[in-house]
Amino acid sequence: MSGTDDSVTDGSTPTEEPIEDDSMPAEDVPTEDGSPSAVTEESDGDADAPTDAETPDRTVHAPEDAGVSVDSTPLEVEGLRRTFGGIVAVDDVSFDVERGTLTGLIGPNGAGKSTTFNLITGMLEPDAGTVRFNGEEITGYQPHEIANRGLVRTFQIARELEEMTVLENMMLAPKGQAGESLWRSVLPVTRGDVRKQETDQLERVWEVLDFFEIDHLADEYAGNLSGGQRKLLELARALLTDPDVLLLDEPFAGVNPTLEKRLLEHIHELRDRGYTFLIVEHDMDLIMNNCERVIVMHQGRILKDGTPAEIKESEEVIEAYLGGEV
Amino acid sequence: MSISETYVRYRRTLSEEPLAIGVVLVALWMAWSLASGLATGGIRISSLASLVWDGLLRGLIIGLAGIGLSMTYSILNFANFAHGDYLTSGAFAGMATSYLVAGIGENSVGALLLVGAGGSVFGGALGIGVTTSPAAVVLGALVAGGLTIALALFIDRFVYKPIRDESGIALLITSIGVAFALRYLIQFVFGAGVRGTTASGSVPRVDVPAFDGTFRVTAHDVTLILVAAGLMLGVHLLLQRTKLGKAMRAMSDNEDLARITGIPTERVIRTTWIVGAGLTGVAGYMFVLWKGTLGFNDGWLLLLLVFAAVILGGIGSIYGAIGGGIVIGLTASVSVIWIPSEFGRAAAFMVMIVILLFKPEGIFSGRTTA
Amino acid sequence: MSVDDVRGRLDGLFERDVTLVLAVLGAIYLAYVLAGVAFGYGLRGQLNSIANLTFYIGAFGMLALALNLHWGYTGLFNIGIVGFMGIGVYVTALVSKPPVAEGGAAQVGGLGLPLVVGVVAGVAVAALFGLLVALPALRLRADYLAIVTVAFSEIVRFTMMSRTFQEATVPDTIDLTVAGVRLFSFDPAADTIGLGGGGGLILNYTDPLEALLRLLFLWEPYLGFVAFVERNFIPNNPKPVIDGVVYGIVLLVCVGLFYLLLSRTGKSPFGRVLKAIREDEDVANALGKDTDRFKLTAFVLGAALMGLGGILWYSGRGSITPPSFRPNITFFVWIALIIGGAGSNTGSFLGGAIFAGVLYEGPRYVKNLVEAAFELGDAPRNFGEAVAPLASLDPVPFLVYTLDSVSQLRLVIMGVVLIWLMHNRPEGLLGHRKETASSVDLSRPGDDGSSGNPAAADGGETR
Q: What residue spans carry the region label Disordered (chain C) (predicted)?
């Protein structure tokens, strides 16, 4: 529906190739925890077969996809649109996110960033448009179905499970827990397996707690954590789901500078290990300094999509959004 | 893209359609069975008219009672499970007054004030009725409203105000405690018996012709309609024309915003209780005047229907409450054409449940008071 | 906080729970025994009193535990408890009542199947109705769910009272004939079946205790024990008393089983997801949990347990009538849960026990105690006669009337207690406690406790 817009935004992709190449080797380095790339391949394999059967249009686009190599752009959004009672919150939003990158999504309040997030992650259903994840169309899927495919989000206001301890929060996250079946958890015959799996999972949980340096808070109620600690916990928790792509909704809001620096280091380290990030953020400098690619939204539409340098030079962005700030 | 759109729609319909189809089928069946019943004479038009009339009046009671509930639900943000017992309180306060006015001098004051607890005085003997003792009825209605206001303000001050900032659920649970305490205090004082309150034999009545027969309209029916219409108009004017009404509407839309913009929230809350409880008390009194009996459980038994009406109409909307009340009242009465009469109330609940599932914001929609 | 502390506390938890439960139960029982002494009860009287108390402790304990799964764990605001209880016991009655006997013309018959089958059917149908309610209703916000569930329980009660379902005649043979070929023929034992309408149902099946003991091959030994008691302690038909006590013990064992089941449910990944749903369903969903499935499972399990609770409460009662299934019982269970503390299984049971012992049965004992202590005469017939003498400074009639109305006033007391709790201690007795939702100890694996050190506070050195 928006061929011209797409080609404009796509025009910036070649300039990013070097960046992507930089990050590609990092992805091949075996990671100590659960290697996201391996997960991707798995879920890809799983996902493709049913997709073909379910959505006929999949086959139509297949050759194209094969040419581009599905893996290099795990998240593709096309023509996303959503209205709320006549007000267009998100209009014809198309972009894709390259593997192993930090992509920033910025825009003034009400630009439609959070709505876009909600549309991608299934919290809201789009009126039009498609979301593809690792080649599979996930438009209109339930949030948990999307999360289980490896596209995991965090929330703008850190939504901790307040009356659960940090450890419980963390233990909740891993996928495929046998004990999530009531009968397996209750029946004496199977409870042993549940306990064993939990014990295994616990090691990973402590590793991640250590990685984020919040292990000393393990037994605290999440509700007792500071704003910044909650953000760390939320990222840590999201990580435990073995995500492929992480969508972070304002991860730095309300975080003090020291913690912000730490959070950024963590994100960079994770990026280097092969995780892909899409970050919604208010803080312009932060995005400009840390992201390989920036998407600017304004009034529900994509204004500009490019490298930080390109964004800074873009007349329209400066006019429409940056204005006096830069 | 169009394919994906279809897909999204497909997923949506998959989850919602079966019930919707079921509802449509049930509606079709009902229409057919009514039409054939009328055609073959299995259902008489006059009895249908009589059911509709009864449903309408019940609906007005429910609607009147619902306005108060709807207002507190939207402004204080909790479902007040004690609301039914406010109705009962109003009914007892009003009836005690009516008894006193009608029977003073000939009976002991205590027996009159206790609304003839234990069979000491009978409403019929006192000639309670809008034509036989108009002063007693008018005063009864006024006292019913006034005392219910006092009660609601007292309870708010000592029960709800200290936990104003808690969640709606905490307040809801607390209101269950209030309901228990209130209901059984009433039983403690007034006794458990259900008493007749009006001289039902001497209430004037007219048999209105309706094609193949007649249906009955009593003076109390007419009184109820007049009172309900008057009060609804009053509330409408209050909410639309006064500054306070605007503040109330603002608060029901967004409490925090209202507070920031300097609306005196506590005063608005107090007004809400005053208006809501006043209407509730009068509704309770009209209820027992109309049906002619009074028991400590009356309000509680009505409460779920009132909830149904409020939800149906959209929480916070007074027109919705009235409209919802009439729909619920009609459902409970007229449904006996299709189902056994024991299930009239069940049918009303089913209507509420269906509305909650398909249009939880209510059919008259809108989160605005008035 | 060091890991040592954590482990110590975890170790202590079990002991503390047992001591706490024993202390509370001990205090309640002691009070009842002392009251019995004051009444001058003999052994029979004491046992009767104890049996009665135990019955209600068991009943409320079970129901509070089941509700805790709904509300405490999953945050599902179910105020239709009594509906599931009623379904459970009515279905049990339908299945297990004998086909109508010759003499009982007014009575409705049943299918005449063994009581075990009836109980299983009752629980299954309660679960089924749980599913029926949950499927559409679980997406509703808490207050709407509350209204829907209480409406559901009222619909159940209307159905019980309904003349339409009062009695139906069962055909002598049920044939399924398709195209002239008889595929299936069945001769049901029942002649009439139904819900009995406003008159309710007489539960004229095998006594549940007998059925249970026979099932366990304990019936003969039990009769021997009764005979032994009759010879040595309680002459003159001790069986009803012993039945009562033993049934109470059976209920307590059931509470134990409920507790075991529900604490396993809670302390597992399943329970963890339920807790997450209670805290923030969107988050659980965003972490890949199919929250609808979890809510559905939890609701159905809770409904089944409520059905079983209803069966255990009413099936030994001789008869059931619709007025027993008014919403009041639902609110009783809620008060019990809030006393004990939503979220804690131990708390739920304690809440049930305290509610049963103090609020539900207590006032009646106080009344009896006062009446035993003073010669009070007849109570005034109504409030007016009770207050009138106050004018002449004679409070006795008022006090007597108050005592006489204790069965209503205890509901006032319950209401006030509920309000007080919501003001002062909404978390109840144990709701504040950390009961970690996990099947294993979550402290750092391989940690011998010595390295649980303050240095961990500045993080990372273990990496």
A: 435-463
